[in-house]
Inverse folding.
């Protein structure tokens, strides 16, 4: 069986990448510390997951993704006023400070302080890269079957517990 394995759902993908926005490198991972994820689980942005399908080990690709295939369009409605006294004292009240919150259903949300008033703070819940065109240079460096436990938990488990 000399068929080369290709990226498909439920395989663990190890990938090098460089992400650029407007010519500036935003994030990267090389072969010494690649990102690893289970294809098809929604662990990475939808456009990147779609573009990876069918790639083989060692294959490289340059991809440009529109906002709707990345972190979504910028949403002018994704703001909320929060009473200032609900912001923990441990969080610096400065514009641009990132905050992680939990909603009523127990989901974690990330926001950035957008405005500070006397009795409230305005939080921006847009992803920092919302509305941006994303440029990826990617290379698949390894593929393996996900374990039953990884599939059940819908993410990669690491032996060294560093990640």
């Amino acid at each position: 069986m000399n068929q080369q394995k290709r990226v498909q759902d439920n395989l663990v993908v190890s990938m090098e990448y460089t992400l650029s926005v407007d010519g500036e490198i935003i994030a990267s991972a090389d072969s010494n510390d690649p990102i690893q994820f289970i294809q098809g689980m929604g662990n990475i942005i939808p456009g990147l997951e779609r573009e990876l399908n069918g790639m083989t080990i060692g294959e490289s690709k340059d991809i440009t993704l529109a906002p709707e295939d990345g972190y979504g369009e910028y949403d002018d409605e994704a703001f909320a006023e929060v009473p200032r006294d609900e912001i923990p004292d441990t969080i610096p009240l400065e514009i641009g400070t990132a905050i992680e919150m939990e909603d009523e259903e127990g989901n974690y949300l990330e926001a950035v302080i957008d405005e500070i008033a006397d009795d409230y703070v305005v939080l921006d819940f847009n992803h920092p890269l919302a509305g941006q065109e994303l440029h990826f240079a990617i290379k698949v460096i390894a593929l393996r079957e996900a374990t039953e436990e990884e599939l059940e938990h819908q993410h990669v488990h690491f032996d060294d517990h560093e990640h």
Remarks:
- The chain has two domains: 11-71+132-153, 79-124.
- The chain is about 10% helix and 40% strand.
